[in-house]
Amino acid sequence: MTSTREWCALIDCEWCERDDMRCRFCVGAGWWRPEKPHRDGNGAIDWIRVEEPCRMCAGTGKEHNPLMSAADNRAAG
Ligand SMILES: [Zn+2]
Ligand SMILES: [Zn+2]
Fold first, then answer.
1. What ligand is nearest to the CA atom of residue 61?
2. DSSP state at residue 4
3. Ligand nearest 17 Cα, by number?
4. What is the model's pLDDT at position 62?
5. How far is the CA of 74 from the centre of ligand 1 (A)?
6. What domain of life (predicted)?
7. Closest CA to 30 of 19, 42, 46, 45
8. Where are the domains of the chain?
9. Residues 3, 43: contact at Cβ < 8 Å?
């Protein structure tokens, strides 16, 4: 079973406090499934799919690095 964490490693994280933006990398799931290179017995590189907590949101599923700037955010707010 996978679930999102409530908070990332930061204390009083401004991104964890809000829940209106989902992480665009894991689409709010808090987990992603990147492909990693894996060398098999013959020396050939295979790509295997792994599941790990999303690094961009620390597994919270909340956007921590939005493309828009803080200034844009304020203007739109
Ligand atoms: Zn956070
Ligand atoms: Zn994420």
1. 2
2. -
3. 1
4. 95
5. 19
6. Bacteria
7. 19
8. 14-76
9. no
How far CA 6 is from CA of 25, 60, 62, in Å, comes to 17, 6, 9
User: Beta-strand (E) ranges in 1-77?
Assistant: 31-32, 35-39, 45-49, 52-53
Query: What ligand has the least distance to the C-alpha of 14?
Result: 1
| Exposure of 43 in the CB half-sphere (CA atoms within 13 A) | 0
- What's at 50, amino acid-wise? V
pLDDT in tens, 22-73: 999 999 999 999 899 999 999 999 999 999 999 999 999 999 988 765 555 5
In the block, which residue shows the tokens 């999303």? 54
Ligand 2 center–CA 29 separation, angstroms: 7
Ligand nearest to the CA of 55: 2
Token pair 């060398």: residue: 39
Rounded to the nearest angstrom, the distance between the alpha carbon of 42 and the centre of ligand 2 is 35
- Residue linked to tokens 């987990």: 31
Location of structure tokens 């790990």:
52
